[in-house]
Amino acid sequence: MATSDPVVLKLVREKPDWAPYVLSCIQQSEEGDGTLWGSTVGNRVKLPNRNLTHLRALRILETVERGGPSGGSARYRMVNPAGAKQALIEAGFDPDARQAGDYFDQHRRARHA
Known about the structure:
mainly alpha; about 45% helix
């Protein structure tokens, strides 16, 4: 079992409105090659879009590819996805919960593929 990431645990306990965004990052990193696009995180949670630079500043995410000059989405990688997932569990969130924008149930399909 992974050790929980203390930064993620503190964030979701103090500001639980960030939990869906962290959850979306974890799920999308598990579904693909470990990277995710910033725009797809907001699409999946279907909440007011947040700038993920806050998660990057906390070292929860690291930039893989910068967004374009016209403000295009950046690509990120989770620094410690297993620790972030454990932190969500400890804070009482289900890391396998279906997000509002996961229309095709991609996370469940990726887990069972």
